[in-house]
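Narrative of accomplishments. A recurring question from our advisory board has been how the design workflow behaves on a single, concrete structure rather than in aggregate. To address it, we present the structure tokens for one chain from the evaluation set, followed by the sequence designed for it. No filtering or post-editing was applied between the two.
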């Protein structure tokens, strides 16, 4: 009887060492294979975590060394006719493999799997020793560069010699990732034993034009004895057989069977149909004895790249099973510097995020890897289209013969691995390699030179790889597959040509650094890269920076974790152009960068989706943001960080890619024109973009014009019924003229789309830039968390721009980075909010929330501080109940005398407190906000560690407001000096090098961050005196007790003209007078 197939994973029992070390104790244990040397060094505590702080620099030596791995394994008894095969699915990169001292393999390509027949080398019924030496790819690359002076090595981002080595190019570092030149058995190693084995199982198939039949050839290769037969079976996922055939291998071991399936169930991308897959099985038998069986899941679909001449040049979009698809999605880089660390579950989390975000395509970038099998399986399962770059990036690659052989074998083996996946619909030659040709003016005569051999003799020999070797290999292994020479590329024209092919639009951020508001005019036929940087959430930043003194935007460690060239000036330019930046408070800076990225994606996706047009007029076929993910915790263009924590831009893309999405935008002018010669009017457009939505019976559009200052509609809302174009763009309004400020006050355009009576999409257009807008007034923002802690309801009385809730690993939101408009209740669903965990708002251009219930005892106690100079005049103080807030002096109703303060809650309403001079001041008392919020803390010197965690700048007060109008006197009365402080306009800060400071915290740019007092001679720098705190509290409360209707103040120290919280004063001079007086009073206490 013939032996059946057996396979044993060689995943345990490994150890490793520096190759140069020879002592027995130099061997260190390996947790498991697959692995890399960095992971094993981390496990053995030989290197620090390179993702933290600047530890990367302490690990560079690893890439300059050679490393040796070994394991022992038992081999079974030898059976006649059975061969033993060692399988290495991936060795990174220059590997010499020995079995029992005999060299069996030399590998120079991390992307090629190897099957090595070791029947003559393996020792049956004994322990065998497998040993692998990994040379330094860094040093070998430099040697290769010297060995080939006939080639000009041009490679951007990192060492140019990288382009001579078939290793992930980003291992040399990139403008978003570290330099971690790792090595090791990065994919599985196993021992197989068999007489015969089935390999390369595949169905080459085509669908009839009417999609009613699928026909082609099933094929498989037999390795081993040929005298067997193969039974091919195709079954549904439920197990029903739909096709069966037998075939005998030919003399070369190739077995084939013609195939036809009528009325097949097809595979579609998500949102367009089901992701139907069949089970294809091949069973190898001799005399009805099964020698080996293998299975694949396959899907049937027709994929087309439509490139047709039209009025705009030449189209570039995808058609799946006869349906035009707008390919909205993102670019993908390796999700970890060390791939073996990525679990199947983590891959699922990443790709599920794409579906959640309405993204339909991912582009696997050419500077990384051919992804793990689970990645493509999940794309098949979830309905995500895959654009697969071959692995070349930002270089003019050499073409010496041994490298070409490696490239061809790499391409062939990986196409065979991927060709059965219905999700993989296009292969591209590489990433931005033709841009290198353009930058260095390398020879490229596309129109007249069609001889591949001549290309090898030019200064751009890479053309041979991209336009001959790769497409030829692809056609041999996967006939009919879609191939594109590079990304970007378009018929040999300049890579920035907007009329043909795909483009990478980097004149936002890079290049001309144009405003993101121009994205719509800058797109091509397919936009396969574009982006904007943003910081991750604070939870991630605190993970990769441990030194609190480095926790600011300009620190060395922060810069080290942003690998983009000139990121400081680029990010600062975009923030300063668009937003008020009166303070570099770090948390607010993080917030602004996130809002910036979100706004940029909003403009890009909604504009380019508008250009999807309709059948026969597809101006733009897709948009893939650079990038979805990160390979380490960092500051980059990613819209989701390394820990799967989504940035607000993720949600902006999600909203723009809804199946039916409305959009509204005004004419954008460059800033110089805007403030030098402002236009008295602007024009606005409204449109609806749809994908594969069912037929729409009743669609209604509402357009509102909402004052940013008051929250009121400045004109009547406009509504109309609309007939919506399916899988295309419906123009609702175009070039409608409307007045600009000052003719009209600044307003938000809010467009709402309702289908069959249900709101399905909203979009808001704001005056640009935001830096000219004021959000200082109370926005009336109310945030309510449900008792089940899984739903958040949000309303506002005045427009709030960019409400962002802080996110962390494990905490998920259905939406974030929202614009909150009056008259609309917004609902967010959340998952993972822990018991007693509070929602943390990063910030917004509007305002935040505060909570508190006020008791009579609290009011009485706090008045002891407020009226410390006049105790005899007010205690016990008289108070008027239910007074008219508009005219408190006219009230002559019953008075309440609080002889014995109690803990009864003061009922919400307006009260009038009579001051020592007999003049009344109104005090609104409001209901407790439904959303808890932890108070700030006054820290003592005993809290030294917490001080450090807060960077020596603990805020004592924040800008706190709510829709119920909780004001600073109520904040102050709720104050407990030992546990919490809430001021409306001031921030207390203590710096061990600077002493006690009171810093202006109003949102006025000329006062933000203004130091009121700088004295380092306080006896205890960590704890200001109680008298000082009391006086500061008193002054801040008195400031805000001044009503907005001109009633006298209680204290002569407050200068005339100072107003309530919204303005502090009614003139700049009044504001400055107050700041000066307050500084003088504080300095009296410090003297």
């Amino acid at each position: 009887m013939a032996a059946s197939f057996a396979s044993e994973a060689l995943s345990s029992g490994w150890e490793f060492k520096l190759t140069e070390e020879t002592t027995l104790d130099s061997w260190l244990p390996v947790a498991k294979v697959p692995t890399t040397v960095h992971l094993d060094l981390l496990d053995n505590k030989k290197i620090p975590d390179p993702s933290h702080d600047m530890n990367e620099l302490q690990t560079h030596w690893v890439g300059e060394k050679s490393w040796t791995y070994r394991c022992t394994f038992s081999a079974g008894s030898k059976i006649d006719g059975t061969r033993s095969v060692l399988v290495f699915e991936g060795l990174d990169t220059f590997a010499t493999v020995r079995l029992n001292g005999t060299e069996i393999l030399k590998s120079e390509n991390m992307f090629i799997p190897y099957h090595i027949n070791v029947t003559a080398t393996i020792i049956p019924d004994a322990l065998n020793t497998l040993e692998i030496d990994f040379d330094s790819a860094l040093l070998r690359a430099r040697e290769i560069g010297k060995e080939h002076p006939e080639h000009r090595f041009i490679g951007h981002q990192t060492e140019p010699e990288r382009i001579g080595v078939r290793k992930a190019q980003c291992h040399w570092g990139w403008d978003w990732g570290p330099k971690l030149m790792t090595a090791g058995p990065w994919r599985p190693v196993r021992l197989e034993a068999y007489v015969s084995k089935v390999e390369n199982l595949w169905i080459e198939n085509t669908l009839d034009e009417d999609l009613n039949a699928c026909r082609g050839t099933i094929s498989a290769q037999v390795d081993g004895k040929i005298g067997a037969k193969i039974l091919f079976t195709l079954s549904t996922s439920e197990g029903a057989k739909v096709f069966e055939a037998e075939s005998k291998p030919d003399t070369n071991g190739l077995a084939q069977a013609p195939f036809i399936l009528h009325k097949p169930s097809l595979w579609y991308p998500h949102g367009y149909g089901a992701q139907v897959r069949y089970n294809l099985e091949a069973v190898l038998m001799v005399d009805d004895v099964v020698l080996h069986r293998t299975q694949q899941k396959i899907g049937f679909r027709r994929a087309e790249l439509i490139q047709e001449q039209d009025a705009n040049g030449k189209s570039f979009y995808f058609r799946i099973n006869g349906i035009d698809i707008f390919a909205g999605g993102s670019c993908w880089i390796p999700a970890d510097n060390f791939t073996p660390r990525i679990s199947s579950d983590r891959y699922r989390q990443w790709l599920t995020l794409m579906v959640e975000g309405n993204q339909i395509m991912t582009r696997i970038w050419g500077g990384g890897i051919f992804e793990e099998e689970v990645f493509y399986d999940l794309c098949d399962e979830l309905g995500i289209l895959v654009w697969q770059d071959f692995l070349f990036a930002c270089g003019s690659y050499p073409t010496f013969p041994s490298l070409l052989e490696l490239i061809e074998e790499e391409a062939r083996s990986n196409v065979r691995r991927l060709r059965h996946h219905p999700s993989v619909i296009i292969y591209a030659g590489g990433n931005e390699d033709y841009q290198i040709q353009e930058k260095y003016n390398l020879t490229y005569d596309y129109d007249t030179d069609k001889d591949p051999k001549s290309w090898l003799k030019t200064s751009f020999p890479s053309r041979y790889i991209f336009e001959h070797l790769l497409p030829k290999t692809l056609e041999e292994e996967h006939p009919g597959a879609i191939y594109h020479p590079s990304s970007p590329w378009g018929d040999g024209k300049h890579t920035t040509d907007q009329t043909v092919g795909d483009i990478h639009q980097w004149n936002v951020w890079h290049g001309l650094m144009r405003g993101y508001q121009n994205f719509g005019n800058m797109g091509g036929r397919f936009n396969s890269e574009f982006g904007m940087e943003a910081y991750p959430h604070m939870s991630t930043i605190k993970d990769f920076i441990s030194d609190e003194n480095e926790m600011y935007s300009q620190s060395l460690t922060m810069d080290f974790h942003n690998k983009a060239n000139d990121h400081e000036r680029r990010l600062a330019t975009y923030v300063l152009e668009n937003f008020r930046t009166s303070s570099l408070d770090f948390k607010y800076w993080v917030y602004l960068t996130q809002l910036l990225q979100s706004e940029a994606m909003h403009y890009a996706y909604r504009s380019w989706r508008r250009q999807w047009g309709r059948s026969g007029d597809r101006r733009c076929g897709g948009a893939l943001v650079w990038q979805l993910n990160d390979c380490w915790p960092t500051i980059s263009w990613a819209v989701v960080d390394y820990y799967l924590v989504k940035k607000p831009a993720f949600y902006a893309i999600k909203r723009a890619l809804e199946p039916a999405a409305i959009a509204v935008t005004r004419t954008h002018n460059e800033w110089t024109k805007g403030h030098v010669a402002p236009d008295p009017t602007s024009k606005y457009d409204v449109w609806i973009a749809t994908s594969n939505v069912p037929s729409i019976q009743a669609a209604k559009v509402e357009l509102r014009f909402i004052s940013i200052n008051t929250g009121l509609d400045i004109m009547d809302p406009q509504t109309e019924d609309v007939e919506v174009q399916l899988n295309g763009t419906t123009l609702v309004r175009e070039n409608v003229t409307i007045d600009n400020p000052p003719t009209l006050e600044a307003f938000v355009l809010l467009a709402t789309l309702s289908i069959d009576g249900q709101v399905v999409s909203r979009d808001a257009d704001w005056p640009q830039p935001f830096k000219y807008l004021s959000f200082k007034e109370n926005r009336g923002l109310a945030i309510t968390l449900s008792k089940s802690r899984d739903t958040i309801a949000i309303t506002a009385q005045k427009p709030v721009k960019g409400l962002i809730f802080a996110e962390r690993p494990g905490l998920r939101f259905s939406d974030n980075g929202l614009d909150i408009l009056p008259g609309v209740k917004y609902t967010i669903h959340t998952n993972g909010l822990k018991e007693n965990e509070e929602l943390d708002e990063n910030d917004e251009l509007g305002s935040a929330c505060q909570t508190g219930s006020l008791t009579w005892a609290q009011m009485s106690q706090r008045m002891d501080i407020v009226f410390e100079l006049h105790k005899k005049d007010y205690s016990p103080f008289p108070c008027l109940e239910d007074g008219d807030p508009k005219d408190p002096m006219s009230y002559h109703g019953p008075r309440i005398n609080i002889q014995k303060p109690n803990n009864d809650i003061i009922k919400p309403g307006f009260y009038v407190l009579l001051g020592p001079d007999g003049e009344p001041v109104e005090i609104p008392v409001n209901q407790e906000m439904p959303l808890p919020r932890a108070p700030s803390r006054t820290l003592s010197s005993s809290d030294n560690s917490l001080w450090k965690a807060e960077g020596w700048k603990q805020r004592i007060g924040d800008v706190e407001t709510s829709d119920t109008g909780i004001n600073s006197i109520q904040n102050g009365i709720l104050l407990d000096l030992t546990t919490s402080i809430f001021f409306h306009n001031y921030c207390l800060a203590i710096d061990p090098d600077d002493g006690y400071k009171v810093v202006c915290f109003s949102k006025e740019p000329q006062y933000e961050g203004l130091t009121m007092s700088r004295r380092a001679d306080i006896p205890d720098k960590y704890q200001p005196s109680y008298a000082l705190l009391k006086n500061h509290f008193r002054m801040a409360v008195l400031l805000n007790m001044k009503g907005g209707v001109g009633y006298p103040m209680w204290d002569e120290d407050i200068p005339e003209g100072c107003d309530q919280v919204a303005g502090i004063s009614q003139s700049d001079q009044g504001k400055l007078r107050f700041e000066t007086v307050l500084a003088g009073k504080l300095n009296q206490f410090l003297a």
